[in-house]
Amino acid sequence: MSTSVFNSVYLDGGCLCKGQVKFSTLRKRNEHRQCVVRSAALSTRSLQIRNSKQEKEARVALLGASGYTGAEIIRLLANHPFFEISVMTADKNAGKSIESVFPHFISKKDLPVLVSTNDASFSDVDAVFCCLPHGTTQEIIKGLPRKLKIVDLSADFRLRDISEYEEWYGQSHRAPDLQEEAIYGLTEIFRKEIKYARLVANPGCYPTSIQLPLVPLLKANLIAYKNIIIDAKSGVSGAGRGAKVANLYTELTEGIMSYGVTRHRHVPEIEQGLSDVAHSKVTVSFTPHLMPMSRGMQSTIYVEMASGVTTEDLYQQLKVSYENEEFIKLLEKGVVPRTHDVRGSNFCYLNVFPDRIPGRAIIISVIDNLIKGASGQALQNLNIMMGFPENTGLHNLPLFP
């Protein structure tokens, strides 16, 4: 891989150059400024800055580029040093440029024209992000070359039990062999398995915000498997980009809307993950809500602690579990996580509070539903699968306000 090489960088009339270091003093407006000079023998021509276009190491196809998660992947990959987008599909917008669909990409002139999925060529591709709706992904992924590394952001490969998929999604699973191969992509929990995976099922946004705080506590037997109550709220982008009356501005603004009450499709995914670590069936009460904001997610989780366990024990377990994780932040005691504080980033902030009911605790977890809840975690996973540093392309600080 070739990289941009800078033979010199000019600073305040001085220069920083390659070679041996020496110091001199320049007088300007009666002040002395220090200049670091490397190899004074270099010619004037050799001091010019040389810009060479960086050659990327891996070529990526993005299926479903015209949705919110597809757009976020494009944004995250814009400055990624290793991944280059070589194919982008959007069936309804085939033949268009990406800036005609998302004008905020007008400065990105190196992106390919959108094509239909059927017309996409994968001969010159190393990896795939699949951002297509559930139910459409199985057949497409089944037809992709086996050499490709794939991260699927739909729900099609998250549930191991294909009969459970049929029950919750209303259709039979058309790629059961691939389902057996798929690795669940909750990065901080399944990092080792993800490293050697060919197909990763990227978790849903709600399950990410819920499992990250609960998995370490269940694993340590600090909370009961019953009476887990989850009140979760999401920005409207979590409902997708499709035009729906329920998602209109006048339908959502200045209000809160509960949906999927008792039957939200993320329930089996949440219970699958929690049951795995508990080695026992875990059933949760889960109610999601749409909030009048574009992005962000908060899960407020009410748990019953095991006998003799305190909220301090829960706090310390989360601290030990995530102290070396870059993207999971346990806040100082008493600090309430806010969606504003993770907006536009791959972070998950969480904290634990004592409930006024003895023996119970309240856990609050916040993420950006489009980043850690979708595209950011997908990139985190593909970085691992391709052998690149896990945090590459994910250094964006949260946006505030």
CATH architectural designation of the largest domain: 2-Layer Sandwich
The overall pLDDT average reads 88
Radius of gyration, CA atoms, in whole angstroms = 24 Å
Query: Fraction of residues in helices?
Result: 25-40%
The tally of structural domains comes to 2
CATH uppermost class of the largest domain: Alpha Beta
For the record, give the distance between the C-alpha atoms at the N and C termini, rounded to a whole number. Answer: 38 Å
CATH topology tier name of the largest domain: Dihydrodipicolinate Reductase, domain 2
- N-to-C order of helices and strands: EEEEEHEHEHEHHEHEHEHEHEEHEEEH
- Spell out the CATH superfamily of the largest domain: Dihydrodipicolinate Reductase, domain 2
Strand order of the largest sheet: 12-13-11-14-17-16-15
Number of strands: 17
Largest sheet, in brief, is: 7 strands, mixed
List the total number of helices.
11
Structural class: alpha/beta
Shape: globular
Contiguous uncertain segments of 5+ residues: 1-53
Strand residue content: 15-25%
EC number: 1.2.1.38
Enzyme class: oxidoreductase
GO molecular function: N-acetyl-gamma-glutamyl-phosphate reductase activity; NAD binding; NADP+ binding
Pfam families: Semialdhyde_dh (PF01118), Semialdhyde_dhC_1 (PF22698)
Question: Short summary of the structure?
Answer:
With 401 residues, this protein is α/β, with parallel strands linked by helices. The chain folds into two domains: 58-202 and 374-386, Rossmann fold; 206-367, Dihydrodipicolinate Reductase, domain 2 (2-Layer Sandwich), CATH 3.30.360.
